[in-house]
Amino acid sequence: MNCVHISFVRHHSACGAEQASRSAVCLCCFRVLLLLLNGSVCASETDGTFSVMTYNVHEYALTDRDGDGEADDPKPESECRAVVRLIAAQHPDILTVQEMGDSSVFEQFRRELLAAGLDYPYAELLQRGRMEINLAVLSRFPIVSVQHRTNEWYSIGDSKVPVARGFLDVEIQVNPQYRFRLLAAHLKSKVYSPLGQTEMRRNEARLLNKVIREILEKNPETNLLAAGDFNDDYNSVPVREVSGRRGGPMTDLRPADSVGDVWTYFWPSTDGFSRFDYIFVSDGMLKEAIREQTRIIRDPLTYQASDHRPVMAVFRAAD
What we know:
It contains eight helices and 17 strands. It has 319 residues and is α+β, with helices and mostly antiparallel strands. It has a seven-stranded mixed β-sheet with strand order 1-4-5-3-2-17-16. Strands 6-9-10-11-15-12 form a six-stranded mixed β-sheet. The longest helix is centred in the middle third of the chain and has 22 residues, at 197-218. It is globular and about 55 Å long. Residues 1-14, 16-30 and 32-43 have low confidence and may be disordered.
């Protein structure tokens, strides 16, 4: 397991090689220009709010897409562009993503966002072995504490099973007076497992809630946000575990899109829709939530970018 805290590393494109010649010097100059010229980047600083987006970017990684047995095929460029355009249109202050590739792919993703006008100087990639479905967070604000959960295990029968993707756990200092803690998760998918995919997901959710309870037992007023792809419906046992069936209550912000739809995942095989992506907050952070600005992003690009839709919440940066 590798927990990667990175700024800029060697270039390796997940969406083609046309950006390979961009130099680090140009990138740094462009970053300075953005700070001076891009009003949208600094908008939240003027009104005392900040935004958090969670987005499953669907295999933003090098994988075996052509069936030759080699994990060397990037996400198609059209899909990558759609992902970046969707994010750039919303310009979240903090972005947590699921299904991110390795560190080189992650750095390319950051460069693409920077070219689109989004500068995230602070970032964390939680990379689990050779897996290409990693968790990551990007932030305009300093990440002041990192304590990823990478040693969580559960038992099913005689089998002892790890939480495959771990839980990303960071604290973010939004301003001198306000910080919050972010837990990001990508629970077991609905893909078949001989151990039972629902039972595996339920156990991962139970362990996520165990982390939540531990944090809130130490300080019930903690500004705590748990977000990600939980791979199940709101009334399912796994999601009820996250929300606090065993204690450590968390509130689902339950955003909707511009026409009132709440689905975040599209099933191409059945033309079905589900809500798999969530933002939960503790009582301490619920008071800061601006519910009328919290939303699911409705945009035709979502169908091209991923099988999920982004979810974004907005908060006041004051206790």
